[in-house]
Specification:
By secondary structure, the protein is of the alpha/beta class. It is 52% helix and 15% strand. Helix 4 links the parallel strand 5 and strand 6. Helix 6 packs across helix 8 and helix 7 packs across helix 8. It is elongated.
């Protein structure tokens, strides 16, 4: 048990926390430990929590992570936890597990972005596949964010100002008036923005900025 009260079931072989992490939420200690044992072959750090509220109070984001939660928990359920994560803008892959999963629960979990919904008793192969896929998706998102940030950092101050106005759906003339420059200069800045970010249109540029 760590000083924060979070049970860290597994770490890297050198004792330091591994880059990939799996958060496990279940009110049964034995089941939490069993899940942590099952994902050991993936070489991940596992952190265990007894409830949704416990997870929210102790959660510290890792670069690449996913969350495995039992559907029925004391206090907020896994569906309630998903809702609270969305409200807090926490982007994390969620895998829901339940021995009582009904179709409405599965649909609700998936509508809120769950990566998978597994039945109890948990099939080890399917659990490993689901966790592996969730971590791969999280790592891909991290790479995309890193690439996006690097591209945007290459822009000059003026180019960022033009970019902000383009994302705000301002026309070339409106941007020129707001910045006190000519429309032709705005066009030149836009061309440089496209060149530096590698996009070919304003819609692509907006997707790059907002992710």
């Amino acid at each position: 048990m760590s000083k924060t009260g979070v049970s860290i079931a597994r770490q890297g072989s050198d004792g330091a926390a591994t880059r990939r992490a799996v958060h496990i939420v279940d009110d049964e200690a034995e089941f939490r430990d069993n899940l942590a044992e099952l994902v050991t072959p993936l070489g991940v750090e596992t952190l265990c929590y007894r409830s949704a509220e416990h997870f929210l109070s102790e959660y510290r984001p890792r670069p690449v992570e996913c969350l495995v939660s039992d559907l029925r928990l004391p206090g907020a359920s896994a569906l309630g936890l998903q809702r609270m994560l969305i409200e807090r803008n926490v982007l994390i892959q969620v895998i829901v597990i339940s021995g009582f999963g009904a179709t409405p629960d599965v649909v609700a979990a998936m509508q809120r972005g769950a990566a998978d919904f597994l039945d109890k008793p948990v099939d080890e192969a399917r659990l490993l596949a689901a966790v592996g896929d969730a971590l791969d998706a999280a790592e891909q998102r991290l790479r995309e964010c890193t690439t996006r940030e690097a591209a945007l950092q290459r822009l000059s101050k003026r180019e960022r100002e033009v970019l902000d106005l383009l994302v705000d759906a301002r026309t070339t003339i409106e941007a020129a008036n707001l910045l006190g420059i000519s429309p032709k200069t705005v066009e030149k800045h836009r061309a440089k923005i496209f060149e530096k970010t590698g996009v070919g249109s304003v819609p692509e540029l907006i997707r790059l900025v907002i992710g």
